[in-house]
Amino acid sequence: MVQEAKALDIVELVEQAVAKHGARRDAVIPILNEINQAFGYIPTAALPEIRRRIHAPAEGVFLADSHLYSAASFYQLFSLKPLGRHVIRFCESAPCHVMGGRQVIQALQNELGLEIGETSQDGKWSLLTTSCLGVCGVGPVFLVDDDIYGNVTSDQVPEILARYK
Amino acid sequence: MKVIRSMVLVSVDQASLERGAEEVFHKFLEEIDEFGLSDKIAVSTIRDVGLRDDIPLVIVYPDAAVYGPVRLEDVHTIVEEHLYKGNIVPHLLALMRELAPEIAWTRDRRGTLPIEKRIVLERAGIVNPESIEDYILNDGFQALGKALTQMTPAEVIAEIDKSGLQGRGGAGFPTGRKWSFVASTPGSPKYVICNADESEPGTFKDRLILEGDPFSIVEAMTIAGYAIGAHEGYIYIRGEYPRAYHLIENAIHQAEMLGLLGDHIFGTDYSFHIHPHAGAGAYICGEETALIESLEGKRGMPRPRPPYPTTYGLFGKPTVVNNVETLANVPPILRNGAVWYREVGSPKSTGTKVYTILGNVNFTGLIEVPMGITLREVIDIYGKGMRNGKKLKLVQTGGSSGTIVPAKLQDTPLDFDSFRNAGVSLGSGALLVCDEDTCVVDLAKVILRFFRNECCGKCTPCRIGTLRLYEIINQISEGKAVLSDLEVMQNISEAMSEVSNCGLGQTASTALRDILKYFREEVEMHIIDKVCPVGVCPIAKHESELMQKAG
Question: With contact defined as beta carbons under 8 Å apart, do B9 and B44 qualify?
Fold first, then answer.
C-alpha cells in the first residue's frame, strides 16, 4: 500500500471510479471505497475531486465537501489517515469472544507491542478491532489485510504474523 | 456404469479405533463382498462424530441410519438386514439424546440422523454459484418465467401473501403485505432493495445464500420488481463480504446476457435492472432507513419512521426492502405454490428458518430447519452436544441485539409466535450457545461495547445510553460498582428501548435486561462480594494478584 497519495494519482483514480460507478449520489460510497482500497486510506484531497464530479440535478442534490467528509468519516472500513503496511482487524463481537477471542487479542497485542487502534513505529502493522465479520462458525477470527484466519489460538499468532514481510 | 446405491461410513476417530473400528470396517468389506454387493455399496470412513460413547458408529446413507456402538458380530446383521434386504435394524441403532416430545422435523425424518428441510439453501453447495446453466438446470428462473408469462403482479402478491411468508431479517413482517403496500402507493419510479448488509454478530446465513445460490436472489428481486411495478433494484452487500459481491455481480451479468434480466425479460414488456452496491462497514446500515441513507451516499443514520420506506424510501420513492433470506423463499413459493409452502413449519410461522449455531457446542455452523424446532434439539442434535461435556448456561438468540434464554427455557419452540409470547426474539437466527464457564457480566460487557461502537450518534437516548451502560458494566466487572447502579442501568435500558429512534437503541440493552432478570444474583456477587464466580472478570485477577502478594 502506498503511504502518501500523490495529487496526480488522486485525480486519475477519482476519474476512473466515477467512470465505473457513475456520477449519481448512490455512487459516493463505491467511489470512496475504490480510493480507500487503492491508497489504504482516503486522502482528504480526494474529497473536492469527487464533489466536482458528482452531478445529480434530478435528485436536487447539493453536495459539499463536508457531505463527503461526513460519509468518509462514518464507515469502519474507511480510514482518513494512512495505516500500516499490514492491517489486522480482530473481531471483537460476542461469538468470537465466547469461543476464546480474549486470549487471542491479548496475544496479538503482546506480540506486536501495540494497543488496539495503534500503528507500529516502522509502519508495518496497524492493529484494529472490527465488529462481526460473518465467519462466526470458525471463531475466533481475524483478518490480516484480505486474508482471514479462523479457529485461531493464541499459540498460532506468532507464526501467522511471521508470514507477512 | 457402476451405480452406488448405498454408502456405509465407519467412524475412525481415535476413540473409535481403540474400540475396534478398524476391524469393523474390514468386516463390512468382507460381508458386503459375501453378499455380492461390492459394486453397489461403498464403504468409507468418517473422522469426526463428536463426543459420544456409543462408538464405533456406522452411518448408512441414503437412509441416514446411525448404528452404534457396532460390535464385530453386529456387522453381519446390518449387512444382511439393512443393505441386502433394505430394512433398518432397530435394536442396533444408536440412541439419540433425549428429545423434546414434539420434534419439528419428524415428517421428513428417516433413520436416526436429523434431516434438514432445505428451501432457501436447497441449491447451496450443490450448484456452481458462478454458472447460470447450473442454476437453470436446477429449476432456476422457472418462477420468474411463470410470474411474467402466467401471472399478473397482483396474483404474484396474492400468492406470496397466501404462503404466509414473513420477513427473515428479524421483525417478521408479512412479505406479501409489504409488497402490496408499495404496489398500491402512488409514485414513480419504485425501487426494490435487497438488504444484504448482514452485520448482526453471529449471523452469516445471508452470506451463505449469496455465495451458494446468488442467482436465486437475482431471480427473486426481479419477481419482487414485477409484483410492485419497479424497474430498478439495488442489492446492498456489506463491505466485509467481497466474495458475495463478486458472485452477485457475476450473476447479474450472466442473467443479462441471457435476457433473464435487463430489458424485455423473457421477451415480455417487463424490464428490470439490478445494481450491486458494497457497504463500507457499519452495523447500523442493516436498519432499512439507514441503509437507504447510505445508498444515497450519506452517513448511515436512520430516518424517523413513519414515513416508512414503503411510501418514502430510496430517493424519496416507494421502496420495498427485503432481507436476503426472505427473497430466497420467493422463487420456491411461486414454483411450488403457497399451499406447499404452508405445509412446512408451524401454522402461524410458515416455512423454514436458517440458523447459525455458535459458541460452546461440538459443531458450529448453519442449518435450515422448519420453524418450531426447540433450542434443546438444536444443541443436542445439530450442535452435537456441549463442547467438553460442559453444562449449558444460556443461549443468546438473534445476535447481539437478541434475548438471553437461560438453560431452563430451552424447550421453547423456535418460531415467531412462541418466541413473541415468551418475550424472546428470533431475530436473525443466530444462536450463541454459552456454557457454564461464561460470566454474564463479561458477556454483557462485550455486547454493550459492541453497541457503544456501532451507535450512529443521531439520537440522544442511544448515544448517551450505550456509553453509560458500557461504563457501568465495566465498573461492575472491576468490582467498583454499587448496588444502586443496577437500578440506574435498568432505567437507562427502559428509556432506550422506549424512546430510541431506531432498532439499534431499542434493542441494545435487551441482553442486559435479560441478564438482570435471570442472572441477577451472579451480577450482584460482582458488586457485593467483589467476586466473579466464573473467574473471568478483572476483579478475579486483582484478587489473585493480591493473594500472590500476600502469599
Answer: yes
Residues from chain A contacting residue B315 (CB–CB below 8 Å):
59
The answer to whether the bond into B306 is cis (omega within 30° of 0) is yes
Q: Which residue of A has its CA nearest to B298?
A: A71
What topology does CATH give the domain B352-435?
Ubiquitin-like (UB roll) (3.10.20)
Query: How do residues A2-52 score in pLDDT, each as one tens digit?
Result: 445 666 689 999 999 999 999 888 999 999 999 999 999 999 999 999 998
Instruction: Pick B444-550's CATH classification: 2.60.40.10, 3.30.565.10, 3.30.450.20, 1.20.1440.230.
Output: 1.20.1440.230
Q: Is B549 exposed, middle or buried (0-12, 13-18, 19+ CB in 10 A)?
A: exposed
CA distance A112 to chain B (A): 23
Is the CB of A94 less than 8 angstroms away from the CB of B298? no
pTM comes to 0.82
All residues at 6 or more sequence positions from B480 whose CB lies less than 8 Å from its CB, including other chains: none
User: Å from B275 to nearest chain A CA?
Assistant: 10
Please report the pLDDT score of residue B107 as a whole number: 36
In degrees and rounded to multiples of 5, residue A128 shows phi and psi of -120, 160
pLDDT at B100: 32
Tell me if A131 and B241 make a contact (CB, 8 A cut-off): no
Which residues from A are below 8 Å from B360, CB to CB?
A: 98-99
B203·A136 Cβ contact <8 A: yes
Q: What is the mean pLDDT of residues B13-40?
A: 89
Q: How many CA atoms lie within 13 A of A113 on its CB side?
A: 4
Residues of chain A contacting residue B299, judged by C-beta atoms under 8 Å apart:
70-71, 74
Q: Boundaries of CATH 3.10.20.600 in chain B?
A: 352-435
Asked if B432's CB is within 8 angstroms of A67's CB, the reply is no
Chain A residues close to B238, C-beta within 8 Å: 134
Contacts of A54 in chain B (CB under 8 A): 297
The CATH code that applies to domain B132-341 is 3.40.50.11540
The residue among A114, A44, A125, A122 whose CA lies nearest residue A78 is A44
- Three-class SS of residue B397? strand
| Interchain proximity B295–A132, CB inside 8 Å | no
Contact assignment for B278 to A29 by CB distance below 8 Å: yes
| A71 chain-B contacts, CB cut-off 8 A | 297-299
Among A72, A107, A122, which residue terminates a domain? A72
- Residue numbers of the domain that contains A140: 86-161
CATH level 2 (architecture), domain B6-95: 3-Layer(aba) Sandwich (3.40)
Summarize chain B as % helix, strand, coil (round to 5). 45, 15, 40
Residue type, B70: V
What pLDDT, on a 0 to 100 scale, did the predictor assign at position A7? 64
Residue B341 has pLDDT above 80, yes or no: yes
Domain of residue A134, CATH code: 3.40.30.10
Q: Which residue of B has its CA nearest to A99?
A: B359
Residue B353: closest CA among B197, B216, B172: B172
**pLDDT tens by residue, B39-78:** 889 888 876 665 567 788 898 877 778 888 899 999 999 9
Q: What mean pLDDT is reported for chain B?
A: 88
Q: Do residue B446 and residue A99 have CB atoms under 8 angstroms apart?
A: no
The residue ranking higher by pLDDT, B416 or B187, is B187
Q: Answer whether residue A62 shows pLDDT above 70.
A: no
Give the total number of structural domains in chain A: 2
Are A48 and A101 within one domain?
no
Q: State whether residue B391 is helix, strand or coil.
A: coil
Chain B residue with CA closest to A29: the answer is: B297
Of B218, B197, B216, the residue nearest B207 (C-alpha): B197
Give the three-state DSSP class for B332: helix
Which amino acid type is present at position B482? V
